[in-house]
Write a structure and sequence with these properties.
Strand content: 5-15%
Structural class: alpha+beta
Shape: globular
Largest sheet: 8 strands, mixed
């Protein structure tokens, strides 16, 4: 509490030392008037400061004159009132003067200014060298932290009985006590009470240069607030030279008028005034903008997750929760998955009995972490680790920066466990629930919210490091599975492979697996590491595997099945947090009592896929225990395992990712393999020339869903690999058809296996990436067919004794995790890591200038969120941001992301006749018709329509094509459409599907003659029956 009365004459108050920043309690007489002296209780400090008797304003001893000026100017009305009534109260009992440090959004410590670096990049950091003492307040403003002043139960009672806010029904700052930071509270209080009130209040405090002015009614008018904001918005996005030019322009304009402008605020015309009013001053607009609380943890700049949610709700952002505050449920997108529905039920069941479930907002969070390079030089020192959170975005807004935030970043070389521990501890509180103010129009009141983590996305190296599992090696190739691989027994044998293909083709025929079963084979495991087949028993335990355990000191931990002492063979073990935790405790016990030596302990832990860091912690803890030193369980058991068990999280929530696993992993490996094979037969140069003809044309269309680069594969992004994956069967098929290999060559003998591998890869990726529901069994079969095709190619192409390429990587065997994952968490598109990856780009620009020290990183974190606040205020005011200006320019652009709008009809006809690639779209309600758009003005387009009959399967067995012919123009052909209908988000609403028409020829010398293949943005192909659907296994090459 801010004050504690100890008698009629004295009260206890709290102040912060202006020298050492210590918060301390002191007595003050209730009769004191004006100001009084206080002494710091820190034995190493003891400095005297002056404190205002009417507020929490504190100044150093040398600033007494300034304190007198403050009291007479700020508290004039109170002084006048006291002169009339000497018994009037001068202490604000509702004000808590506990100063906030940087961890609780202290605007003073976080003060930032402008420093020139390079065009369009600014580094906002406060500098006392550029602002004089007369230009700002001389000491920190005492800001309140009222999180404990409101009882949670009373908040709930008020809300659920009769608390209903609307603009006009004013609130006070105490209504925002759940939010940290006094300036955050005053901003959103004013935003609630008045139209654009937040920025108007900020502009008022900036205009009078007094950040202490926290009266909720003190605001400039709307036009003045908008004027100062637009000036600030223009300044922060310019280097110093451009800032001076901008201000000079304003000064020139104002000099042309005889009278002063019709405004109640000062318009800056030089850098000193701009710094003071807009940029650098402690009371400047930029430094008074709201931002969530930040702190430093283990060298990382971290954002408080709970505070971030407070701000997201206060800004009134749109969400797609499991259930909103009115009890309405949503099952769209991720919410409808098994994982989403299970989490929803768990959150409802865990909710306190005093809180009405039907009036609670239930939402989910997704975490993603990875590292990136700021610079390509000195990569080890310049790699930054980042943790991202995504907060239940609405459909079509998965890339929105209003729902994806950077939670923490720091050097890649740092230990990230303290950061993960911090956020897991926060999740413990978030799942209990909290009252938050929701500023969305139509709501604008407090609602009770509950959030929990639904999945953690990371690529394999990052995921393995987080889970403390081995990366590759004998036991660590597959996440959450500890088991060795054998390239002879694990793949399908010559009997089982045809059966697998037949089952896969039954799915193509919509028959499914009913009536088709694969018997357990004694010759192979059929890609099942947990098969009951005898073929599973192939890896004999080495001498370093423990054969006994202590009998004198029985182990209190149960050894996992498959890893008991005395095992004869090492079979695969499915891992969980409980198994991993038990395994570490069991190994620690056996090593401590002397039953196992270090070599046995390390090998046994390796056989459980536990990484080397944890192994060494177990050894070190055991050595200390042998010396009778105190050892805690947390010394050798990773905190993530323990906390995850407490929270009920499973290891499977650390999911495999589409972009890294399929794009950078599988597709990239297939490209590298085919390049190697073609080079060995002097065909790589010819293939590059052939494929680049297609890739160059498609790249010129600038399609968001099919982004490609030319071969060779150099510095390709994940989206480039996926774009190539959409085209690979057509490219390879056409090349093999037009450029036959010499008879008798090695590649000619195994060309069928190569085609099977490429075709099965295309089918598998299409099934994995489509948004259609695919049965788990069908996914499992498609993956195993692809892996078998890879194995069969290796057997035919390479000599015996060479390790299969799929054995040397973790991505191929990890494909087996996807059927269960997709069945539970939904399709890969619902948590596609490319969405999270995009969030790096805006942050990376700011972090390029960051130094390695903690304060620099922390200021960058604050800067990121102040920029975001600027953007949201601009949207609220209707000020066009840079992004909106770019979108306006794109209205007349022929590159719409989903489809390329061509110049005119003649260009389309010329490309069609000459056999060039064409960008198109179609509507499922008009079968057998493809539309190619061309421009009909700045924001309009018309279409040229083509029809096709049933498709044909080419002789190469890879491509399917149809003969297209133009539909004769009618009066309806002159109808124009708005280009905005072809925007990706609008297209989804209008059920428009985008596609690519790829020319088909059987030799280089013949004409296309209207023959084209079709690929769509939903991973669909043209099929023999004339439909556009998921690709199928061709009977030409899968004739088993």
């Amino acid at each position: 509490k801010s004050t504690l009365r100890i008698g009629d004459s004295y009260i206890i108050m709290y102040s912060t030392c202006t020298s050492c920043q210590l918060q301390f309690a002191h007595e003050v007489s209730t009769t004191v008037d004006g100001y009084y002296g206080i002494f710091c209780t820190n034995a190493n400090c003891g400095r005297m400061s002056w404190r205002c008797s009417s507020c929490a304003y504190v100044l150093p001893q040398s600033r007494r004159a300034r304190m007198i000026q403050h009291h007479q100017s700020v508290h004039y009305n109170e002084i006048a009132a006291q002169s009339d009534d000497n018994n009037s109260e001068t202490v604000d009992d509702n004000f808590d003067p506990l100063l906030e440090d940087i961890t609780t959004a202290d605007d003073d410590h976080a003060s930032t200014g402008i420093m020139e670096e390079r065009p369009s990049i600014v580094n906002l950091m406060y500098s006392n060298n550029t602002i004089t003492a007369d230009d700002e307040l001389d000491a920190a403003v005492a800001e309140a932290d009222d999180r404990d002043t409101d009882d949670l139960e009373s908040l709930i009672t008020d809300h659920f009985q009769d608390e209903e806010y609307s603009r006009g029904n004013s609130t006070s700052q105490t209504d925002f006590n759940m939010m940290e930071g006094e300036h955050n509270r005053i901003f959103f209080s004013q935003q609630h009470n008045a139209e654009h009130g937040g920025i108007r209040g900020v502009a008022h405090r900036a205009a009078i240069h007094d950040r202490c002015c926290l009266d909720i009614n003190d605001m400039v008018d709307e036009q003045d607030g908008k004027l100062l904001f637009e000036i600030t918005d223009n300044l922060v996005n310019k280097p110093v030279a451009e800032q001076k030019k901008f201000l000079s322009c304003i000064k020139t304009i104002m000099s042309r008028y005889d009278s002063e402008p019709n405004t109640n605020v000062t318009i800056p015309t030089d850098m000193k005034a701009a710094d003071r009013l807009c940029l650098k001053g402690k009371s400047s607009i930029f430094n008074l903008l709201p931002f969530p609380p930040t702190k430093v943890i283990g060298g990382h700049a971290c954002l408080e997750l709970d505070g971030l949610l407070d701000h997201c709700f206060a800004w009134g952002l749109e969400f797609l929760p499991f259930q909103d505050h009115d009890g309405k449920t949503y099952t769209d997108g991720f919410n409808g998955t098994k994982a989403g529905q299970r989490l929803y039920e768990q959150m409802k069941n865990n909710l306190s009995g005093d809180i009405p479930v039907e009036q609670t907002f239930f939402g989910h969070l997704m975490f993603w972490s990875d590292s990136f390079l700021r610079f390509f030089s000195r990569q080890r020192d310049n790699s930054i680790w980042m943790l991202i959170v995504r907060i239940c975005p609405p459909m079509g807004m998965s890339t929105s920066e209003s729902h994806t935030y950077c939670l923490a970043f720091g050097s890649k070389s740092l230990d990230h466990e303290p950061v993960i521990k911090y956020y897991l501890d926060q999740l413990t509180e978030l799942r209990k629930g909290k009252m938050r103010y929701y500023g969305r129009k139509g709501v604008m009141r407090k609602i009770y919210t509950v959030f929990d983590l639904v999945l953690y996305a990371a690529d394999m190296p990052e995921r393995k490091e987080l889970l403390r599992q081995l990366l590759l090696g004998n036991f660590g190739k597959r996440t959450n599975v500890a088991g060795m691989l054998d390239q002879q027994k694990l793949p399908s044998c010559y009997r089982c492979f045809p059966d697998m293909v037949r089952i896969a083709r039954r799915f193509d025929d919509s028959v499914g697996i009913e009536g088709s079963t694969i018997a357990i084979c004694s010759h192979c495991c059929n890609w099942d590491q947990f098969s009951d087949s005898n073929a599973r028993q192939i890896h004999v335990c080495p001498p370093s595997y423990p054969t006994s355990c202590s009998m004198v000191h029985p182990n209190p931990n149960i050894f996992p099945t498959g890893r008991t002492v005395g095992e004869t063979h090492l079979v695969a073990v499915m891992l969980s947090f409980k198994k991993l935790s038990t395994a570490v405790k069991a190994a620690y016990h056996e090593f401590t009592v002397g039953a196992w030596n270090k070599k046995q302990t390390r090998y046994w832990l390796s056989s459980m896929a536990i990484d080397g860091v944890t192994q060494e912690r177990v050894i070190a803890a055991g050595d200390r225990k042998k010396k009778d030193e105190e050892v805690l369980e947390s010394d050798y058991v990773p905190h993530l395992w323990t906390k995850a068990i407490d929270l009920g999280y499973e290891a499977s929530m650390f999911v495999e990712l589409g972009m890294h696993l399929l794009g950078h992993g599988i597709v990239s490996s297939i490209i590298d393999l085919t390049e190697q094979v073609l080079k060995e037969h002097d065909q790589w140069a010819a293939y590059k020339r052939f494929a680049n003809q297609y890739l160059t044309q498609i790249a010129s269309f600038r399609l968001d869903w099919c982004h490609v680069k030319e071969l060779p594969k150099t510095n390709w992004l994940g989206e480039d690999c996926f774009g190539y994956a959409r085209l690979q069967t057509h490219l390879y098929g056409q090349f093999f058809l037009r450029h036959p290999f010499a008879v008798g060559s090695n590649i000619s003998a195994c060309l069928l296996e190569l085609k099977r591998m490429i075709s099965s890869c295309d089918i598998m990726i299409s099934l994995l990436m489509t948004k259609k529901h695919i049965p788990k069994v069908q996914l499992d079969v498609a993956i195993k067919v692809f892996l078998s095709c890879c194995h069969e190619f290796c057997k035919e192409y390479y000599t015996e004794g060479i390790t299969d390429f799929w054995m040397t990587k973790g991505n191929f065997i990890s494909l087996l995790n996807l059927p269960e994952q997709i069945d539970f968490f939904g399709g890969l598109a619902l948590y596609y890591d490319g969405v999270f990856e995009r969030s790096i780009q805006s942050v990376k620009k700011i972090l390029q200038s960051a130094r390695k020290n903690e304060n620099s990183l922390l200021k960058k974190m604050i800067l990121i969120h102040k920029y975001l606040a600027m953007k949201r205020i601009g949207e609220d005011l209707g000020v066009a941001t840079d992004d909106e200006n770019e979108k306006e320019e794109e209205v007349g652009n022929r590159y719409q992301g989903g489809v390329r709008i061509f110049k005119d009809v003649e260009q389309i006809e010329q490309r069609f006749v000459s056999g060039k690639c064409l960008s198109c779209f179609y509507v499922p309600s008009l079968p057998n018709q493809i539309n190619i758009p061309y421009s009909a003005g700045r924001d309009k387009y018309r279409v040229v329509a083509y029809k096709f009959s049933n498709a044909m399967v080419s002789a190469d067995g890879c491509s399917r094509y149809a003969t297209f012919e133009r539909i004769q123009p009618t009066s309806a052909s002159d109808t124009t459409f708005s280009k905005s209908t072809l925007d990706m988000r609008n297209a989804i609403k209008n059920d428009i599907k985008f596609g690519l028409m790829l020319p088909y020829k059987e030799s280089d010398n013949e004409a296309v003659q209207g023959r084209y293949a079709l690929r769509t943005h939903e991973w669909l192909n043209l099929l023999e029956d004339g439909t556009v659907n998921l690709p199928k296994y061709s009977s030409y090459i899968f004739n088993v």
